[in-house]
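Z., the sequence and structure:
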Amino acid sequence: MTTKKTTFSKEFLEKIRAALLAEKARLEKELPSVSDEDQTSGAFPSYGDKEDENAAEVAEYAANLTLEDTLVKSLRDVIQSLKRLDDNTYGICKYCKKPIEERRLIARPTSSACVECKKTIIQEL
């Protein structure tokens, strides 16, 4: 099976690359602020021993884990999009192999599926 190559203009792809690189830098900067050594080792923040302080510790820990997971997934998507740019396969739907609309890619540069395929996938869930 032949991998389809992108058909977008060089200017469009450069604009997308700049947006992806800016997002990558933002995510890499933000990740350390929610992922300190205590939390990656599984320890809770320590506010004290009272019941309400313990509840606050658990809530903060859970919120940071969720945020960290979201940031890690976003960074993964950005890196995969940059790889597709390098491979000259950016903007091609991974399901139907048709070009993804420019409007969709401008709105969400990490998109790897066209609107039609994404709708089908969401309906199946």
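The radius of gyration is 19 Å. Helices lie at 10-34, 37-40, 51-87, 102-107, 115-124.

Let me know what you think.
H.
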